[in-house]
Amino acid sequence: MSSDASRLGFYLLIAPLLLWLVVLILLPHIGLFAVSISEKTGVREYEIGFGNYAAFFTEPLYWRTFARTAIMSILATVLTLLLGFPIAYYIAKLTRGRTKTTLFLMCMIPFWVSELVRTYGWMILLRETGVFSNALQYIGLTTGPIEFLYNDAAIMVGLVYTSILFMVVPLVTTLDSLDDSLIEAGYDLGGTSFSVMREIVIPHAMPGIVSGCIVVFMLSLGNYLTPILLGGKDSLWFTGMIYTQFITRFNWELGSAFGFLLLALSSLVVFVGLKLSRQSLTETMGR
Amino acid sequence: MTVSPDLVCRDLVKDFDSFRAVDHVTFEVPQGSFFSILGPSGCGKTTLLRMIAGFQSPSSGDLLIKGRSMLGVPPNKRPVSMVFQHLALFPTMNIGDNVGFGLRQRGVARSEIKARVTQVLERVGLPGFSERRVEQLSGGQKQRVAIARCMVLEPDVLLLDEPLGALDLKLREHMKIELKALQSEFNTTFVYITHDQSEALVMSDKVAVMNHGRFEQIGTPHEIYYDPKTAFVAGFVGDANRFDAKVSAKSGSALSMVTEAGTQIEVETDASNLSVGQGAEVFLRPEAIELAKAQADLTVKTNTSVGVVTSVFFNGANSMVSLKDAKAGMSFNVALPQTGAFADLQPGDEVYTSWHPAKARCYAHDGA
Amino acid sequence: MKIKLVSSIVFATSLMAQGAHAETLRLLTWGGYAPEEVIAKFEAETGHTVEVTTSNNEEMIAKLRATNGGGFDLAQPSQDRITSAQEEFGIYKPIDMSRVNAELFIPSMLSATAGNTTYNGEVYGLPHVWGTSGLVVNTAQAGDVQDYTDLCDASVSGKVSYRLKRPTLIGFAYSMGLDPFAAYADTEAYQGILDQVEAKLTECKPNVKTYWEGGDEIKNLLRSGEVVASMAWDTGGWQLNADNPDITFVAPESGALGWIDTFVLPARGRADDAAYDWINFVMQPEIAAMITNTAGNFTAAVDGDAAVSADLKARYQGSFDQSAIDNIKWYPPVPAGLEAIEGATLDRINAAN
Fold first, then answer.
1. Does the complex come out with an ipTM higher than 0.90?
2. Any chain A CB within 8 A of the CB of B88?
3. What's the pLDDT at B368?
4. CB pair distance less than 8 Å for B55 and A184
5. Using CA atoms, how far apart are residues B337 and B317, in angstroms rounded to an integer?
6. What is the H or E stretch that residue B362 is in?
7. How many CB atoms lie within 10 A of CB A267?
């Protein structure tokens, strides 16, 4: 009797998780997959096949766009890490109490407005008649206006800005858990700042670094607005391509196949990254 | 030419925003000795140790190691090593890498590091532990690794920040002896801070008792225990019965005093600054009091009184009884002799006590 | 005149009668087509409530496709995109002409739209707002830009913008002396035209500052002077003209591209009564003028331009003389599958370096 009751309790507990998994994760993917393996043969006529997947590999534009997206995302991840680590270290180790909270909040301020607004903000700063260009002219460093927008560097700035919080948060968490006395012990035993960082701080922060990198990589890869708006005429981005297939081409079949390929290929990149850094996903995400 | 002491502190002061943590501390530690700094938490002993290690810089005063001033020298350039309170072993490295860390920083050749790590691990009794992970070790083994990690660098001074605090009692007792043995084995100067008097007394050559940022007394464990120079030392080191009393008569070093409860006591002390009518604190160790079931059995005939047992604290060799003076109603503790002669005492029993006037310590009331 | 008066009295009474069955009208439309004041008036008069979702042609079709024509009660895609979407996805239902007050519509536009939106003998679309796309030019700095191909001129290098969408392909084709609309039905001929346009646009790419995505973006680029000539809608040019008299809409020599946004009923819409009420309501001359004043484009309502602001009329007349109006190339219905061919061309242009 009591075991029946506890079993019911167990099912009630697990119900939201199952519901979430099935309704929000599993079913859409099954639906998407079903669409991705249907090839259009005529008006309202479809047959099952993997032609849409084949199209990705046979049309250079598609896989080159993916490769470009992946490489840019990896670069954005590396830049975010290089920028985020000192920030996180400063917040976690060199500040206390109110200052810490304030700095943490400042990292979050950009997320109080929508991504679109943030991106427009960058456009105002970077455009030819924008703040940076005018400031440079004002202080006399250049004579004419400079266009900072519509290139890969602008995309990079936007991506790093958008994802820095997602790097800083896991880093601050892992660095917070690093006992100060370990750092002091490192110095006490003759370590330089560099060797203490390399041998003590970074190995300790590795799970945070890896989970931050995975999140930032995925966010960059899946970003749509930033590359399109800041990138200008050469801003090929794989999610933009998926959007185009779905919306302007009415080609849901190819779009779905692209979606699955994005999922598979980005998982592959993350897997390779984990192998290279000798971290396991359970260790990284389980902490 | 005299050999300069390993560690010299001169008028060391450390001020924080709102208070002074270390207040004009001066001491010397000769080579190869075990020096303890004993004090309650918040007395400034950790700040003092961190200044020696280089993690904090003094507000004024000087700090010399082997005759060389350490002011402005960063921690990684000082010939001192520190064993941290929670040991601070690097969890991401195995034991060998932990111990070899300092040597790697000095750019010692890989093969030599290996040899020296092996050697020092043998000396601390952990041969073949190189490949183990930190979390596979017991508390005592971690302790020894932490010491090995410092000793492999052959520091002039080894600083220890209450390293036994986290261990359980049995292991702590064992490690006290082991630490002392390691110190004489390596013949290195140890500076040890603790709030546990027994650790300080057992291991040290010299003990400094610290309170409110000042050194109250520096001396051998024996001096500290039997000849405390201040009321704080008398009260902090070892057990003591404390009375407030007033001097009623003075003749040389012999004083007659009346306690607050009205009992007359006789005290012999070199406290020349006490005069008739002045208030003082009197400290008397529980083991200085003689106990007898009949007055005639007392060998010491001064300061006799009759008391009633209020409670018995059995603690093996350190057993005590609490007595209430029959006349004045004053309470005090008496140590039971280790012969077991009074093992049958029960609350309510009547006993006779006496103590020699020279066993008590008197200190004039501050200001009062 | 008398007939009109009578009909509007009848119409008003019928609105009162229907007020008893208040419905929620979920309207999928363009920005500016359903101004707040119009909605307020409509709600007060009929008792219906209106929920507006603004979108564009492609997203309208994608949204309706995702729900098989559900989720909205009235949509407003352009007339050339209706039959192909209906053929492929079946997302609309036919218009019941008996419930539409046909007298409110300009007859020629009503019949032209009906012709273009007829599928399997049923009419699917009613005309609402019409306009053109062409060139928006800063005449002080790029007065020589008279046609689409002039955007590739070295004198405006780096200060040009257009969308990477199908109107650009078609505009350039006309400007190059080709006739893409005539080739709609002939895939091979159309592909031939696209190939020539692709070569031209690829060659033109270094001239382009950026491919714009949204109306606000191109207006900002033109207003700041970063872009001096662009392909854009007429209204955008007229709005900018209000702030800076140098900037205005120019009907290209090869002809502006004319579009008509329509009313269509999504297949699974639930509030048909409210939808017809809305159509009959906004086509009244004074309401139509209110919409023209916010959207910037004229409507298919009879006398709909009477109450339009004089400024807007002046700008319109400044951009279009009679010959320019006669030269407007009206989009014919897009055959199903044409977007895929055009898409491949656009992809190649986008990827070209």
1. no
2. yes
3. 41
4. yes
5. 8
6. strand B361-364
7. 11
